[in-house]
Amino acid sequence: RQRQPYSADKKFEGRQRDSDSAGGHTQRSPVKRFGSDADDMESSGPFTMRRGLGDTSVKSDQDSSTGRTRSVKPVDTRVPISVPYTTPASEFLYGTSVVEAALKSRRIPRRQHYKLYIYTGENREAVDRDANLERLARKNQVDIVKVNGDGLRLLDKMSAGRPHNGYILEASPLPRLPVTSLGELTTKDEQTGFEVAVDYQSREDAAVNGTSSFVRIPKDRHGRKPLVLFLDSIVDPGNLGGIIRTASFLGVSAVAIATRNSAPFSPVVLKASAGASENMALLSVSKPAGFIQDSRLAGWKTFAAVAPSKNNGSQASITSMSTDDLFDPLSEDPCILMLGGEGDGLRQNMRSKADVELYIAGGGRSHTVDSLNVSVATGILCNAFLSKSKTESALSKDQEEAEESSSHDFLF
After folding, report:
1. Is 286 a member of any domain?
2. pTM (two decimals)
3. What CATH number corresponds to the domain at position 163?
4. What is residue 48's predicted lDDT score, i.e. its pLDDT?
5. Quick one: where's region Disordered (predicted)?
6. Are residue 197 and residue 119 in the same domain, yes or no?
7. CATH of the domain at 280
């Protein structure tokens, strides 16, 4: 008779059969609670979790050469946990801000939400926050799974060991519409926005990203036109998430990201964005040079973020200026601000496509630091575009002149 290979599963099943034959077999129904107060085996759909199999105690050993007793790192021999996936493309969002932002998101299109996992173990203090997220989940018709005890291992595995604050949301991928260029500004169904040329995408991708060629933007109270960030070669997920967070806070209309040489949109990026990714209009670009060139033809003015240098604006067709000299460009044209990678900055072939090279003038006090982190630089550059309108700047200047004149009257 052919011998079957040994496995822990067969051994466990043998023990289970012995138990069933002794006390009678009872079929179990799926449950929605995991933890130490449940049975040794619990199932929910495709997921099966087992506990209590393995020795994780700390042992000691004696070094034969020195005679000293040394501790031996414990080996976790527990059976590995299987992560349940509602769909093969499911993503697991973790952390309070990310999960809450995803459940509150009203962007179109938006993610599909499948399950919300909440840790309810001992010494849990975030009771009010748990109730708030449960309310949001029920409002969005999302299944809620309570986890306690050893079930915490499941959450840790879903978040790849990163801090999750006791919340994991299983959802579809974040929509990122693939485009070849930006188009003209327009109004559709009483909503302001701009047209885009949609790139090819598969049927599965279209179900996630949508197919609309119109990008809606909030109406600016100063009448300014949209600002779109274009990110090329941003490889650090923390920087990518930080840039999206900054852009959302300052009022950037959309963020376009080069797909071939940038960090993938992982849960790390989502956590670094503190939930801003869930409400920001995100675009993906496969051909950056063509994207910039065609967008310029459609009326978009393009700025290339560069480091201060004597070579800035060396090409006759490109103007070079500091953020101090930037005077409300969005009052005249919709603008694209290009930012390059952490190491070498924006690639030369992308710089050559710009209308203006824009740099941040430093204080000149340091001989060792001549540049800024790309996430920090993004905040300063975006603020230069969005902080004040021409009208506000003119009023501020008139007020300063009036105050200066008044002070002269008192002096003389």
Report:
1. yes
2. 0.75
3. 3.30.1330.30
4. 38
5. 1-75
6. no
7. 3.40.1280.10
